[in-house]
Structures are given as structure tokens and as C-alpha cells.
């Protein structure tokens, strides 16, 4: 873990986000940012991310961030936590490849990130994080306001088997329902009713 | 749908991918690309993407791409298909906001993308697509070789309810097992055993 406060060499100014990222061919680019994000009504698209060695930036270091950081780390991601203080369970989690940026978020902190997670408790800061992520075209989980982000963490059920983990994710736009369905699916996995070993002779 | 062949104003040369994207602050950046991607052993991380109005680029226009394109479009994504020829069901799917780039892939075709999908049938081309996605730090589904990509499409089960869709995604690293478990979960959703309506009085 990098304990020393980190600062980007050249932090982004808000005006830097007004145009398109400079590495994109100018003629083929539409503006990479929109100033306001409409609430999403369409269904979400479930994807399984292969996060090994990918940088995930979490802004905010409280209990929600702690739970999510453990999940990202379990998938092999490298973590950068941007937060003045850390939940004790995050501090325990961080390894030599991870960073703690011990201060409030500034534009540029998503440098190198593949995925962003914001849970600062301050909607204005969460919106700033979402704005930089939008500019970079990387997905951002906004823990305080699902529809102001571009990705959501589904409810999960998991079974460990000798041939690897089976993961079930449930998303319904209603977290309470998603959790209830995931609990049911967890029962199915644990009861042996779900076919976890389909390779047996038929 | 934009039927006229599209070409980036300034296609990327392979050497352009050697460094870091130019819009990232130089001092804070580690090389954005690795030349070879090790097979992933860690568990995948399930995420629900909110793709409304986000550009998804699909390279290859065959049957696999067609199935995936329908799913992306169902989640509200804009599509860019890069392929000399199109599966008939893709052609039917494309709306005025979508693009068909009627030729083979060239570097730069992922401009503006949030997510990439490659299913060209040619491992060398799929690798080129994955390489550009890696450089941009956007996730790439490699339909021909899961571990050479950075994301995978899970098996799915779905229930439509008056209060929205409930989506269950299953990933296990073994597609046959994932599909078998998802079929079981679909039975649970349809039988009424899964608690799709948890808001009733308790």
C-alpha cells in the first residue's frame, strides 16, 4: 500500500473536461461528456468483469466503500482509495499494489482507472466523480444515487465448488427485491437443487 | 442507421498505442497497455451496466454478434458494427442512432466507445480489438477467447413484472455450467418460487 498522499502531476481543471479526450481522433469524436445525465429507464446489462490487475478507483472510504473494495480486491483488481479517512476494514485490505490518496477528491484522480466507485456522502462530490468518469468513458457506480451513475452493483449469491466459483447476480432496479431474489438463489445453490455439476454422465 | 461507410478522420497507427493516452496527466500515468494478457484465474466481478445512450462497438457481424447486439440495444446502447457483411438480424436491429462501418476493423474504430465486443472469427483481429480496448481502458468481450478479453457475458434468466424486469446473471468460468444454472434460475422465476414481489405486507 502506498501510504504517502499521492497527487497527480497535472490535475485536471474543470475546463479540461469540456472537450473530448485529446487522444481521440478529432474528426471522429462527438463530445465525450453531457452536462446532465437523464435517469435511466432501460434495463441494465449484466456483465462479468475480469478485473485482474485492473485499477478500480473508489472515492470515499466509509462502510459502503469498504464492502465494495473487498469485492473488487477479491476479483484481483488494484485499488486506489481517495478519502481523507479510511474505514478500518479497508486499511486491512490494502496490499502493496494498492494506493490510499489521503485527501478529498480532485479532478484527475480517475487517471488510469478502468472503473470508478463513488460513495462520499456528498452528492456534489459524487457528481464530480461521475463527471470525470463520463469524460473518460469508464463506468461509474454512484452508491448514493444509482441513476446518476453508469453502473450498479447487483445483489449476489455464490457457491464454491471444486471446479471454481459459481456467481449469481440479481438486478431489478429495486435493491430490496434484488436482495430477496438473491437470497432465494443462494438457497437454491446451497440446497443442491441448482445443477452445479452439469458434467456428470447424462 | 448510418449506411455510408464511416472512417475515422485520423485512424490510429499501431505505434500510437505504445504510450499512454495523451489526455492523461503524464506524471501520474503508468503505461496504459500491456503487450500480453495473462489468462485470468481470479473470479469475475458481476456488474449491471446502465448503457442508455452509451456507444458499444461490435467488431464482427455474424450470429454471435447479432445475439449480443440485440441485448446491448435492449439496454438502450447505441451500436457501431464494424464488419464487411451483416447478419440479417443485425441489419433489422439498427436504428437511426446506430452505425454500420462496412469494412474490416482498423485501429481507431473504438473511438468514443464505452464497451467493445469482438467476434470476428480471426484470433489476430480479435486481439487487435482487445489491444485498442486495453489502451483505452474500456472493457472488451472477446467472444472467441474469454481470457483474452476483459469482460464476459454471463448466462441470463429474466422475469418481467409490473414493476420492471428482474435479471439474473450466472457466471462460473464454464459456459455450459453457467447456462445450466441459469435455466434452473429461470424455472425459479417462472414458478413463482423466487420472491419477485417483496413489497407485499409482511
UniProtKB/TrEMBL annotation, chains A, B:
SUPFAM superfamilies: NAD(P)-binding Rossmann-fold domains. GO terms for biological process: siroheme biosynthetic process. It catalyses: precorrin-2 + NAD(+) = sirohydrochlorin + NADH + 2 H(+). It comes from the Bacteria. Gene3D superfamilies: NAD(P)-binding Rossmann-like Domain. Keywords: NAD, Oxidoreductase, Porphyrin biosynthesis. Its EC number is 1.3.1.76. InterPro entries: Met8-like, NAD(P)-bd_dom_sf, Sirohaem_synthase_N. The keyword NAD applies. Coiled coil: none annotated. It holds the Pfam family NAD_binding_7. Transmembrane segments: none annotated. Pathway: Porphyrin-containing compound metabolism; siroheme biosynthesis; sirohydrochlorin from precorrin-2: step 1/1. GO terms for molecular function: ferrochelatase activity; precorrin-2 dehydrogenase activity. This is precorrin-2 dehydrogenase. It comes from Dietzia timorensis.
Amino acid at each position: 500500500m502506498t501510504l504517502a498522499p499521492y497527487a497527480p502531476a497535472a490535475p485536471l481543471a474543470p475546463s479540461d473536461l469540456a472537450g473530448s479526450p485529446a487522444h481521440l481522433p478529432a474528426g471522429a469524436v462527438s463530445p465525450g461528456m453531457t452536462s446532465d445525465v437523464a435517469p435511466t429507464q432501460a434495463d441494465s446489462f449484466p456483465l462479468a468483469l475480469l478485473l485482474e490487475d485492473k485499477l478500480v478507483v473508489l472515492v470515499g472510504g466509509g462502510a459502503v466503500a469498504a464492502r465494495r473494495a473487498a469485492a473488487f480486491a477479491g476479483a484481483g483488481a488494484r485499488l486506489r482509495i481517495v478519502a481523507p479517512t479510511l474505514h478500518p476494514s479497508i486499511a486491512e485490505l490494502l496490499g502493496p499494489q494498492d494506493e490510499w490518496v489521503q485527501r478529498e477528491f480532485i479532478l484527475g484522480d480517475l487517471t488510469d482507472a478502468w472503473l470508478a466507485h463513488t460513495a462520499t456522502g456528498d452528492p456534489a462530490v459524487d457528481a464530480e466523480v461521475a463527471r470525470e468518469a463520463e469524460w473518460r468513458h469508464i463506468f461509474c457506480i454512484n452508491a448514493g444515487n444509482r441513476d446518476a451513475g453508469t453502473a450498479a452493483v447487483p445483489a449476489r449469491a455464490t457457491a464454491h465448488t471444486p471446479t471454481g466459483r459459481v456467481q449469481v447476480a440479481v438486478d431489478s432496479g429495486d435493491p430490496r427485491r434484488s436482495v430477496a431474489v438473491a437470497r432465494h438463489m443462494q438457497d437454491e445453490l446451497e440446497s443442491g437443487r441448482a445443477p452445479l455439476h452439469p458434467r456428470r454422465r447424462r
